[in-house]
Inverse folding.
């Protein structure tokens, strides 16, 4: 691949990586927080740059051209070299740095960590931008390896080789019902929980906490009845307070939200393991000053989460 002036647009090359991985303009747009027209425009630029269709429609699917497949590793290597160049300085000054960190995070972890972290950055690093994004946890290793995210918040019981992690705090999963629900007055038994109609937040991929609930139900030969999937915890709380639906979430987030909704927090009647929240990062970023500072700051503000 010859160096062309347009190749200085590393964002465009990152777009190429995501398009080739997703093989869908709409999914690639969602993954990069772009509109579909913007992603289509980026694909058109890439086709012109490489003088190749790159992705071809066949039977309703987007299939990579041979040229597109051949370019994947070269583009990945070029982006990796660019990241090493950016990280080359041995010092990092948060007060003057202009940086955009991307953090992969489930909603509950972001809701707990983002507010104190942003307050800290407003004082210590006013020019730094943070992006908290939900993404498919089954692809977390891939995202961290490719540098699409700088770190991940959540819980990974068996981290893949090449990853480092630090546990930040622990939590547990609780059940949520509306006030004056029969379960609120009499308590929630295991059978009632299993028989209930449930509402869940629908993240990209099934979260560890929801998977652990499903596994607990399966151990007693049952499967939860999921009646509704919603976009976020606020909608879930509103649905619960206006119906007999039952929800489940981490206790710390539930207690913060319960003040604003007519709901009750009840103990989880299934045997679900304690949930830990940890910070994960790829080995290759271990010595990068900017990312080391970010990890230390996240760890520090997490100590005050109650």
């Amino acid at each position: 691949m010859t160096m062309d002036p347009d190749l200085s647009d590393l964002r465009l090359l990152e777009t190429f990586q995501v398009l080739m991985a997703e093989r869908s303009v709409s999914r690639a747009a969602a993954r990069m927080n772009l509109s579909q027209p913007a992603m289509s425009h980026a694909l058109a630029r890439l086709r012109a740059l490489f003088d190749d269709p790159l992705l071809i429609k066949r039977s309703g699917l987007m299939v990579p051209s041979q040229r597109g497949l051949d370019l994947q590793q070269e583009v990945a290597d070029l982006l990796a070299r660019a990241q090493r160049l950016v990280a080359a300085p041995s010092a990092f000054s948060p007060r003057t740095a202009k940086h955009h960190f991307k953090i992969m995070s489930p909603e509950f972890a972001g809701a707990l960590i983002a507010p104190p972290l942003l307050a800290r950055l407003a004082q210590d690093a006013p020019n730094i931008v943070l992006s908290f994004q939900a993404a498919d946890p089954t692809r977390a290793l891939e995202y961290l390896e490719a540098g699409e995210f700088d770190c991940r918040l959540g819980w990974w019981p068996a981290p893949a080789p090449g990853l480092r992690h630090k546990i930040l705090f622990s939590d547990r999963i609780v059940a949520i019902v509306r006030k004056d629900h029969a379960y609120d007055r009499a308590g929630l038994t295991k059978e009632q929980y299993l028989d209930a109609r449930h509402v869940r937040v629908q993240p990209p991929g099934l979260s560890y906490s929801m998977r652990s609930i499903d596994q607990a139900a399966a151990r007693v030969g049952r499967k939860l009845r999921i009646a509704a999937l919603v976009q976020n915890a606020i909608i879930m709380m509103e649905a619960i307070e206006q119906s007999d639906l039952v929800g489940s979430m981490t206790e710390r987030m539930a207690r913060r939200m319960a003040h604003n909704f007519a709901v009750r927090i009840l103990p989880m009647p299934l045997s679900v393991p304690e949930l830990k929240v940890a910070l994960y990062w790829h080995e290759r970023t271990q010595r990068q000053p900017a990312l080391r500072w970010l990890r230390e700051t996240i760890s520090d503000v997490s100590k005050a989460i109650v």
